[in-house]
Specification:
- This protein is 40% helix and 11% strand.
- The protein is rod-shaped.
- Among the domains are: 2-45; 70-173, Alpha-Beta Plaits (2-Layer Sandwich), CATH 3.30.70.
- The protein is of the alpha+beta class and 228 residues long.
- It has helices at residues 2-28, 82-86, 104-107, 135-139, 170-193, 202-227; strands spanning 70-72, 92-98, 118-126, 145-147, 162-164.
- The protein starts with a helix and ends with a helix.
- The strands form 2 sheets. The protein has a 3-stranded antiparallel sheet with strand order 2-3-5, covered by helices on one side. It has a two-stranded antiparallel sheet with strand order 1-4.
């Protein structure tokens, strides 16, 4: 019998404790926590209060050293493809078209003054695969690849997680390819039409060498005779 009443007492005590915690949070909800960032040492020591954020209008700030969504500044990309080779899971896809001599000015330079020599019709980053290791950003010579502070980029369709950074449309890329092929074909024709340089046969070269050595020997004998 005593155990029966002891269990009732324990249940009532447990309910009272839980309700006390609930009421404490309920009354504290009239206050708001401060807006210290997650990197602030006082973040978890702030006054008790409402902690629910009005997402997406409000969001917890991300740490300055955090690695989140990978992005590319295509204006500074030179198409070296080092990031594509360095990526351990192949989430970066690049296609390049060599810039013709008359298009170098149009293609432009990077912010660091380096001339760009490739068009980039395709520069895709599959963020669904990206594991934010940062290897691609380390090898990038122009530092155009960065991990942005955007940490929430959920999508209903997985294809929307593939980000496109190319600087040419499909029609523009086809036009640039045709132009490059035409110039390469013309250069090959010009090279084929150019007059071939005469090539001395092995015998002619030997005869010319022997003749030169004979002349040099004769000059040397004449000089020695003159000295005597």
């Amino acid at each position: 019998m005593s155990e029966y009443f002891r269990n009732i007492k324990t249940g009532a005590s447990t309910i009272a404790t839980g309700m006390g915690i609930t009421l404490q949070h309920f009354f504290n909800a009239v206050k708001r926590k401060g807006d210290a960032g997650v990197g602030d040492s006082n973040y978890f020591g702030q006054v008790d209060g409402l902690v629910t954020l009005q997402y997406p209008r409000e969001a917890i700030p991300t740490p300055a050293n955090g690695r989140y969504r990978l992005e590319n500044n295509i204006d500074d990309c030179i198409g070296c493809a080092q990031c594509e080779r360095a990526c351990p899971i192949g989430c970066i896809t690049i296609e390049t078209i060599k810039v013709t001599a008359d298009d170098l000015g149009v293609c432009g330079k990077t912010s660091g003054g380096q001339q760009k020599k490739f068009w980039l019709p395709v520069f895709d980053i599959d963020t669904a695969k990206c594991m934010t290791c940062g290897l691609c950003t380390v090898v990038c010579p122009t530092e155009c690849l960065i991990h942005s502070p955007v940490s929430d980029f959920s999508e209903f369709d997985r294809q929307n997680l593939v980000y496109h950074f190319g600087n040419l449309t499909r029609l523009e890329a086809e036009a640039k390819k045709r132009k490059l092929q035409e110039q390469q074909a013309q250069a090959a024709k010009d090279k084929a039409a150019a007059p071939a340089k005469p090539v001395l046969s092995g015998k002619s070269v030997a005869e010319k060498t022997a003749s030169s050595e004979t002349e040099d020997s004769g000059k040397a004998r004449g000089e020695n005779t003159g000295e005597q």
